Amino acid sequence: MSSAPLRVEINGVPMAVDDAGSGQPVVLLHAGIADRRMWEPQLRFFAGEYRVIRYDLRGFGETPLVPGPFSLRADLRDLLERLEAVPAVIAGSSFGGKTALEAVLQYPEIARALVLVGAPLGGYDWGAELAADEAEIEAAFTAGDFERAAAVDLRLWVDGPSRTDTDLDPAFRERARRLARHVYEVAVDVDARPEPLEPPAVGRLREVKVPTLVVVGEQDQPAMREMARVMAAGIPNARHVSIPNSAHLPSLERPEVFNHVLGQFLAEVIPPA
User: What percent of the chain has pLDDT over 90?
Assistant: First the structure.
């Protein structure tokens, strides 16, 4: 199944959006090492039963990054209102999960339910274990070595701390490599200033009032697995699921397992037609 791509202007930015299927809306926010294409297995699987919306966040894929202050949370709210898709089940992977959680904290009316996949938690102290890798990525990007930046991303997030590239399906890893490299290829150096959520999410988890599914890959970084446990414990009515044989992108690496887990959750939180 392919969706008809849309250009929806939100807060002065033309957002690249796919809107497929019909029924209750499910919106998918991509990871920071990918763009909306990472959700292809879910778009194909769920659009037969639900209205599935995915879009490129500012500065990713086909959505430009423009100068000035901005709020990813407001972008999400305004896009869903423009598409008449409120309330929605809001699912986010990694950076998209962080955005989803913070948007629901600021604009609770937009969400019917929340799905957090390998999501970092704003205000949580990760420690220093990932700092050297992130510095290497930044240095490679600054030098214009996008292949090297993507390679570190893959080692860090796609392979995970206890696997090597030979442990992964080559087709999946190559797809992840292309997605990660494209992030750097389209990045632009403009004075764009994201507005942080204040106070941060780490101290506000009990404010989330919608059913929440917290998903993490069993091979993800220890910090990500710990943050998943913290969110599942702190958010009322939250469920914690670990996906075996996957790291930071379980929806792309193990789509059959992930789709089963997400499908069960959707069946519980969306009223029958």
Answer: 92
Q: Phi/psi of residue 179, each to 5°?
A: -65, -45
Q: The pTM is what?
A: 0.96
**Strand, coil or helix: what is 230?**
helix
Contact (Cβ atoms closer than 8 angstroms) between residue 217 and residue 246: yes
What 3-state class would DSSP assign to 10?
strand
Closest CA to 212 of 234, 244, 195, 192: 234
Do residues 263 and 48 make contact, with C-beta atoms less than 8 angstroms apart?
no
Can you give the length of the chain in residues?
A: 273
First to last CA, the chain: 23
pLDDT digits (tens, 9 = 90+) for 13-42: 999 999 999 999 999 999 999 999 999 999
Provide the Cα torsion 28, 57, 118, 146; round to 10°: 130
How far is the CA of 198 from the CAs of 69, 147, 250, in angstroms? Answer: 15, 35, 30
Phi and psi angles of residue 41, each rounded to the nearest 5 degrees, phi first: -60, -30
What CA–CA distance (Å, rounded) separates 93 from 112? 17
* CA separation for the pair 110, 105 (Å, rounded): 10
